[in-house]
Protein backbone atom coordinates (compact mmCIF):
# COMPACT_ATOMS: atom_id res chain seq x y z
CA UNK A 1 0.00 0.00 0.00
CA UNK A 2 1.16 3.54 -0.68
CA UNK A 3 2.77 4.95 2.47
CA UNK A 4 0.55 8.05 2.69
CA UNK A 5 -2.73 6.27 1.89
CA UNK A 6 -5.43 5.65 4.51
CA UNK A 7 -6.66 2.05 4.57
CA UNK A 8 -10.42 1.55 4.20
CA UNK A 9 -11.97 -1.85 4.92
CA UNK A 10 -15.63 -0.88 5.32
CA UNK A 11 -17.66 -0.16 2.14
CA UNK A 12 -19.96 2.03 4.26
CA UNK A 13 -17.12 4.33 5.32
CA UNK A 14 -18.51 7.87 4.76
CA UNK A 15 -15.10 9.10 3.57
CA UNK A 16 -15.50 7.16 0.31
CA UNK A 17 -19.26 7.59 -0.09
CA UNK A 18 -18.74 9.73 -3.20
CA UNK A 19 -17.54 6.63 -5.09
CA UNK A 20 -20.65 4.56 -4.36
CA UNK A 21 -22.34 2.79 -7.29
CA UNK A 22 -20.18 3.99 -10.18
CA UNK A 23 -21.55 1.39 -12.59
CA UNK A 24 -25.16 2.35 -11.88
CA UNK A 25 -25.53 5.06 -14.52
CA UNK A 26 -29.03 6.10 -13.47
CA UNK A 27 -28.04 6.33 -9.80
CA UNK A 28 -24.99 8.43 -10.61
CA UNK A 29 -27.00 10.66 -12.93
CA UNK A 30 -29.51 11.38 -10.18
CA UNK A 31 -26.85 11.97 -7.54
CA UNK A 32 -24.67 14.23 -9.69
CA UNK A 33 -27.50 16.23 -11.29
CA UNK A 34 -28.57 19.61 -9.87
CA UNK A 35 -30.41 18.92 -6.63
CA UNK A 36 -28.69 15.57 -6.08
CA UNK A 37 -26.51 14.88 -3.05
CA UNK A 38 -23.40 14.89 -5.26
CA UNK A 39 -24.29 17.90 -7.41
CA UNK A 40 -21.14 19.73 -8.43
CA UNK A 41 -18.96 16.59 -8.27
CA UNK A 42 -17.70 14.22 -10.96
CA UNK A 43 -15.60 11.07 -11.00
CA UNK A 44 -12.52 10.47 -13.15
CA UNK A 45 -10.79 7.12 -13.64
CA UNK A 46 -7.16 6.30 -14.41
CA UNK A 47 -3.84 8.05 -13.85
CA UNK A 48 -3.72 9.90 -17.17
CA UNK A 49 -7.35 11.05 -17.10
CA UNK A 50 -7.10 12.29 -13.51
CA UNK A 51 -3.83 14.06 -14.19
CA UNK A 52 -5.31 15.85 -17.22
CA UNK A 53 -8.34 16.89 -15.19
CA UNK A 54 -6.15 18.43 -12.48
CA UNK A 55 -3.89 20.17 -14.99
CA UNK A 56 -6.99 21.59 -16.67
CA UNK A 57 -7.92 23.27 -13.39
CA UNK A 58 -10.42 20.89 -11.78
CA UNK A 59 -9.95 20.56 -8.01
CA UNK A 60 -9.38 17.11 -6.55
CA UNK A 61 -11.50 16.15 -3.56
CA UNK A 62 -10.20 12.62 -2.86
CA UNK A 63 -8.62 9.59 -4.50
CA UNK A 64 -9.34 5.87 -4.10
CA UNK A 65 -6.62 3.37 -5.04
CA UNK A 66 -6.17 -0.38 -4.95
CA UNK A 67 -4.51 -1.33 -1.66
CA UNK A 68 -1.88 -3.33 -3.56
CA UNK A 69 -0.73 -0.32 -5.57
CA UNK A 70 2.93 0.60 -5.18
CA UNK A 71 3.32 2.78 -8.30
CA UNK A 72 3.65 6.46 -7.33
CA UNK A 73 0.63 8.64 -7.96
CA UNK A 74 0.67 11.22 -10.80
CA UNK A 75 2.65 14.32 -9.85
CA UNK A 76 -0.44 16.50 -10.35
CA UNK A 77 -2.03 14.96 -7.24
CA UNK A 78 -0.94 17.19 -4.37
CA UNK A 79 0.10 16.03 -0.91
CA UNK A 80 -2.99 17.67 0.62
CA UNK A 81 -5.44 15.41 -1.28
CA UNK A 82 -6.91 12.56 0.83
CA UNK A 83 -5.83 9.17 -0.55
CA UNK A 84 -7.79 6.08 0.44
CA UNK A 85 -6.74 2.49 -0.26
CA UNK A 86 -9.03 -0.54 -0.34
CA UNK A 87 -8.77 -4.18 -1.37
CA UNK A 88 -10.46 -5.38 -4.54
CA UNK A 89 -13.40 -6.93 -2.69
CA UNK A 90 -14.12 -3.68 -0.86
CA UNK A 91 -13.64 -1.64 -4.06
CA UNK A 92 -16.10 -3.90 -5.88
CA UNK A 93 -18.70 -3.44 -3.14
CA UNK A 94 -18.20 0.34 -3.11
CA UNK A 95 -18.06 1.11 -6.81
CA UNK A 96 -19.70 -1.92 -8.40
CA UNK A 97 -16.63 -2.56 -10.56
CA UNK A 98 -13.08 -3.87 -10.30
CA UNK A 99 -10.34 -1.26 -10.37
CA UNK A 100 -8.37 -1.88 -13.56
CA UNK A 101 -6.90 1.59 -14.10
CA UNK A 102 -5.03 2.19 -10.87
CA UNK A 103 -7.17 4.86 -9.28
CA UNK A 104 -10.44 6.74 -9.29
CA UNK A 105 -10.84 10.31 -8.11
CA UNK A 106 -13.59 12.67 -7.04
CA UNK A 107 -13.33 16.25 -8.35
CA UNK A 108 -15.28 19.50 -8.21
CA UNK A 109 -16.96 20.46 -11.48
CA UNK A 110 -16.50 24.19 -11.07
CA UNK A 111 -18.67 26.77 -12.86
CA UNK A 112 -20.15 25.88 -16.25
CA UNK A 113 -19.07 27.92 -19.26
CA UNK A 114 -21.63 29.73 -21.38
CA UNK A 115 -22.02 29.24 -25.12
CA UNK A 116 -20.70 32.74 -25.78
CA UNK A 117 -17.62 32.09 -23.64
CA UNK A 118 -16.84 28.85 -25.47
CA UNK A 119 -17.28 30.36 -28.93
CA UNK A 120 -15.17 33.45 -28.20
CA UNK A 121 -11.94 33.00 -30.13
CA UNK A 122 -12.95 29.63 -31.61
CA UNK A 123 -12.91 28.92 -35.34
CA UNK A 124 -13.92 25.23 -35.54
CA UNK A 125 -16.86 24.08 -33.42
CA UNK A 126 -18.67 20.76 -33.06
CA UNK A 127 -22.37 20.94 -32.14
CA UNK A 128 -24.14 17.79 -30.91
CA UNK A 129 -27.83 16.95 -30.77
CA UNK A 130 -29.18 14.02 -28.70
CA UNK A 131 -25.78 12.33 -28.31
CA UNK A 132 -26.58 10.58 -25.03
CA UNK A 133 -24.15 7.66 -25.29
CA UNK A 134 -21.07 8.45 -23.14
CA UNK A 135 -18.77 6.33 -25.30
CA UNK A 136 -19.75 8.17 -28.47
CA UNK A 137 -19.43 11.53 -26.77
CA UNK A 138 -15.97 10.61 -25.48
CA UNK A 139 -14.82 9.53 -28.95
CA UNK A 140 -16.16 12.76 -30.45
CA UNK A 141 -14.46 14.95 -27.83
CA UNK A 142 -11.10 13.22 -28.27
CA UNK A 143 -11.31 13.37 -32.07
CA UNK A 144 -12.43 17.00 -32.06
CA UNK A 145 -9.58 18.03 -29.78
CA UNK A 146 -6.99 16.09 -31.76
CA UNK A 147 -8.17 17.20 -35.18
CA UNK A 148 -8.41 20.94 -34.74
CA UNK A 149 -11.80 21.75 -33.22
CA UNK A 150 -11.65 24.31 -30.44
CA UNK A 151 -15.24 24.34 -29.15
CA UNK A 152 -17.89 21.74 -28.31
CA UNK A 153 -21.57 22.58 -27.85
CA UNK A 154 -24.19 20.19 -26.52
CA UNK A 155 -27.96 20.33 -26.66
CA UNK A 156 -29.88 19.79 -23.38
CA UNK A 157 -30.37 16.06 -24.05
CA UNK A 158 -26.70 15.17 -24.60
CA UNK A 159 -24.99 13.20 -21.86
CA UNK A 160 -22.53 14.79 -19.46
CA UNK A 161 -19.01 15.13 -20.94
CA UNK A 162 -17.62 14.76 -17.41
CA UNK A 163 -19.37 11.44 -16.88
CA UNK A 164 -16.73 8.85 -15.96
CA UNK A 165 -17.02 6.73 -19.12
CA UNK A 166 -17.06 9.74 -21.43
CA UNK A 167 -13.90 11.27 -19.95
CA UNK A 168 -12.20 7.87 -19.88
CA UNK A 169 -12.92 7.19 -23.57
CA UNK A 170 -11.77 10.73 -24.38
CA UNK A 171 -8.52 10.00 -22.47
CA UNK A 172 -9.16 13.19 -20.53
CA UNK A 173 -9.14 15.43 -23.61
CA UNK A 174 -12.64 16.62 -22.75
CA UNK A 175 -11.09 18.59 -19.89
CA UNK A 176 -9.00 20.65 -22.31
CA UNK A 177 -11.70 21.17 -24.96
CA UNK A 178 -13.92 24.17 -24.13
CA UNK A 179 -17.54 23.02 -24.00
CA UNK A 180 -20.94 24.36 -23.05
CA UNK A 181 -24.55 23.26 -23.09
CA UNK A 182 -27.22 25.23 -24.93
CA UNK A 183 -30.36 26.02 -22.94
CA UNK A 184 -32.68 25.44 -25.91
CA UNK A 185 -32.27 23.45 -29.11
CA UNK A 186 -32.37 23.82 -32.03
CA UNK A 187 -33.03 27.49 -31.24
CA UNK A 188 -29.60 27.59 -29.61
CA UNK A 189 -28.01 27.19 -33.02
CA UNK A 190 -28.79 30.85 -33.60
CA UNK A 191 -26.10 31.74 -31.04
CA UNK A 192 -23.57 29.94 -33.20
CA UNK A 193 -24.48 31.83 -36.36
CA UNK A 194 -24.60 35.10 -34.42
CA UNK A 195 -21.00 34.40 -33.37
CA UNK A 196 -20.03 34.38 -37.05
CA UNK A 197 -19.99 30.63 -37.75
CA UNK A 198 -21.11 28.93 -40.94
CA UNK A 199 -23.04 25.72 -40.22
CA UNK A 200 -22.63 22.28 -41.78
CA UNK A 201 -25.06 19.47 -40.94
CA UNK A 202 -23.44 16.04 -41.29
CA UNK A 203 -25.88 13.50 -42.69
CA UNK A 204 -25.73 10.16 -44.56
CA UNK A 205 -28.27 11.52 -47.07
CA UNK A 206 -26.83 10.69 -50.54
CA UNK A 207 -28.29 13.96 -51.86
CA UNK A 208 -26.05 15.99 -49.52
CA UNK A 209 -22.85 17.67 -50.70
CA UNK A 210 -19.67 15.56 -50.32
CA UNK A 211 -17.69 17.03 -47.45
CA UNK A 212 -14.53 16.88 -49.60
CA UNK A 213 -16.08 19.57 -51.79
CA UNK A 214 -16.32 22.08 -48.93
CA UNK A 215 -13.77 24.85 -49.43
CA UNK A 216 -12.95 26.99 -46.39
CA UNK A 217 -10.78 30.01 -45.90
CA UNK A 218 -8.10 29.46 -43.24
CA UNK A 219 -9.77 32.01 -40.96
CA UNK A 220 -13.37 31.01 -41.69
CA UNK A 221 -15.45 29.97 -38.70
CA UNK A 222 -17.29 26.70 -39.20
CA UNK A 223 -19.52 24.62 -36.92
CA UNK A 224 -20.13 20.96 -37.69
CA UNK A 225 -23.54 19.77 -36.44
CA UNK A 226 -24.07 16.07 -35.69
CA UNK A 227 -26.94 13.99 -34.35
CA UNK A 228 -27.21 10.81 -32.34
CA UNK A 229 -26.30 7.33 -33.49
CA UNK A 230 -29.19 6.00 -35.58
CA UNK A 231 -31.73 8.83 -35.80
CA UNK A 232 -29.20 11.53 -36.68
CA UNK A 233 -30.24 15.17 -36.72
CA UNK A 234 -33.89 16.10 -36.42
CA UNK A 235 -35.54 17.70 -39.41
CA UNK A 236 -36.07 20.91 -37.46
CA UNK A 237 -32.34 21.14 -36.81
CA UNK A 238 -31.51 20.31 -40.42
CA UNK A 239 -33.80 23.10 -41.56
CA UNK A 240 -32.06 25.62 -39.29
CA UNK A 241 -28.60 24.58 -40.43
CA UNK A 242 -29.40 24.60 -44.13
CA UNK A 243 -26.20 23.30 -45.73
CA UNK A 244 -25.91 19.51 -45.60
CA UNK A 245 -22.73 17.50 -46.11
CA UNK A 246 -21.97 13.79 -46.22
CA UNK A 247 -18.98 11.46 -46.07
CA UNK A 248 -18.88 9.46 -49.34
CA UNK A 249 -19.19 5.74 -48.56
CA UNK A 250 -18.68 2.60 -50.62
CA UNK A 251 -19.61 -1.07 -50.65
CA UNK A 252 -23.25 -0.48 -49.82
CA UNK A 253 -22.47 0.95 -46.38
CA UNK A 254 -25.13 3.56 -45.61
CA UNK A 255 -23.65 5.27 -42.55
CA UNK A 256 -20.84 5.33 -39.98
CA UNK A 257 -20.75 5.38 -36.20
CA UNK A 258 -21.19 8.99 -35.12
CA UNK A 259 -17.77 8.99 -33.42
CA UNK A 260 -16.02 7.79 -36.58
CA UNK A 261 -18.00 10.22 -38.73
CA UNK A 262 -17.09 13.13 -36.45
CA UNK A 263 -13.39 12.24 -36.63
CA UNK A 264 -13.39 12.11 -40.43
CA UNK A 265 -15.34 15.35 -40.74
CA UNK A 266 -13.10 17.17 -38.25
CA UNK A 267 -10.03 16.03 -40.18
CA UNK A 268 -11.43 17.18 -43.51
CA UNK A 269 -12.50 20.56 -42.15
CA UNK A 270 -9.19 21.03 -40.38
CA UNK A 271 -6.96 20.48 -43.41
CA UNK A 272 -4.84 23.48 -44.24
CA UNK A 273 -5.52 25.11 -40.92
CA UNK A 274 -2.42 26.53 -39.20
Protein architecture, described:
This protein is of the alpha/beta class and 274 residues long. It folds into two domains: 6-108, 2-Layer Sandwich (60s Ribosomal Protein L30, Chain: A); 115-270, SPOUT methyltransferase, trefoil knot domain (Alpha/beta knot). Helix content is 27%, strand content 19%. It is built from nine helices and twelve strands. The chain has helices at 25-32, 47-55, 88-95, 115-119, 134-146, 164-169, 189-194, 235-241, 258-270, and strands at 6-7, 41-45, 60-66, 83-86, 103-108, 124-128, 151-154, 179-181, 198-202, 209-210, 222-226, 244-246. The strands form two sheets. Strands 8-7-6-11-9-12-10 form a seven-stranded parallel sheet. The chain has a five-stranded mixed sheet with strand order 1-4-3-5-2. Helix 5 packs parallel to helix 9 (258-270). It is elongated and about 60 Å long.
Task: Write the SSE topology.
Blueprint: E1 6-7, H1 25-32, E2 41-45, H2 47-55, E3 60-66, E4 83-86, H3 88-95, E5 103-108, H4 115-119, E6 124-128, H5 134-146, E7 151-154, H6 164-169, E8 179-181, H7 189-194, E9 198-202, E10 209-210, E11 222-226, H8 235-241, E12 244-246, H9 258-270
Helix pairs in contact: 5-9
Give me the secondary-structure category. alpha/beta
What integer is the average pLDDT? 91
User: How much of the sequence is in beta strands?
Assistant: 15-25%
Radius of gyration: 20 Å
End-to-end Cα distance:
47 Å
* CATH fold-level label of the largest domain: Alpha/beta knot
State the CATH architecture of the largest domain: 3-Layer(aba) Sandwich
* CATH evolutionary superfamily of the largest domain: SPOUT methyltransferase, trefoil knot domain
Work out the helix count.
Answer: 9
Amino acid sequence: MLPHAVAVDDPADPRIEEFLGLRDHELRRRRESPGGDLAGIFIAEGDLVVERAVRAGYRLRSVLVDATRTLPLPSAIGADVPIYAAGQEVVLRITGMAMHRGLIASLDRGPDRTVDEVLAGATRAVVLENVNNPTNLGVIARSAMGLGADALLLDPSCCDPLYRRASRVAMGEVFALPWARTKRFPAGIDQVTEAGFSLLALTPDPAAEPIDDVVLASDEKVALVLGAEGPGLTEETMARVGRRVRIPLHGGVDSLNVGAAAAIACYVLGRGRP
